[in-house]
Design goal:
The protein is mainly β. It is built from no helices and 25 strands. The strands form seven sheets. The protein has a four-stranded antiparallel sheet, with no helix packed on it. A four-stranded antiparallel sheet has the order 5-6-7-8, with no helix packed on it. A four-stranded antiparallel sheet has the order 9-10-11-12, with no helix packed on it. It is globular and about 75 Å long. The chain starts with a strand and ends with a strand.
Amino acid sequence: LAVDSQERFYLASKNASTGRFDLLQIGTDGAVQTIADLGVTRVNGVGVNSRDEVFVGAPNNLIKVDPVTGAVSTFTTVGLPNPRNIAIDGKDNVYVQNESDVISMIKPDRSSVLLYSKGDGVVDPSFEGDGYPNIAADCADNFYIAPYRWDVIKQNGEEHILAQVVPRTGQVSALFDGLKISSHLSDIDYLSFDRFGSRILMWADYVNEIWQVPVTCGAISVEAHLVAQPGQDLSGFSRPPSAIIPLVDGRTEYVFS
């Protein structure tokens, strides 16, 4: 699911001859080529930033690869004690989901911030551990999360609540409860951001289904509805409504998407 601006996919594949992982690129025509020998025997997570640079998570090593030259370098060794996956947002922050409920953020200047580490399910989120990643970063500077337990968003048990985290402010908001949408959204074990479709993709493990929810940069897509009383006319909008609906009781509904 690591894809660049030209819709080329990247994945890590173990080389049977060397025992190390190679970075492979799959073009839009299906052609596969080896970009680089990553020099490591374990890889967890591949992502692409806004400059089409490829990042790979390995124990104590965030590897950076130039897909044009194949040059491989260590971006940082901090924040990846035992990675399970990485996600990169629109500001090129790299989020690392580690074992033992540890989530860190690695900034473009290579500094690392520990976001969550307690794993108590009360103050910090805890994860079941049967499906990674449980986080996905979008085109803004935040990420989405589906924990197993987190009292902050009233989640406890199989993952059914999707929340948004804004690291720069510490804000956490539950976005929706899957159980209120469908009984199928009762075990969300995998999240991914589709940068071309502007949507979050969610794997519902119990039923083997992929669900989607539209997002904008920084938020789930929403609509605002303003209802004017009979005879009341609203005008002078800085942003025009996407729809104006006359209601049967004489009121007028203005819809902003």
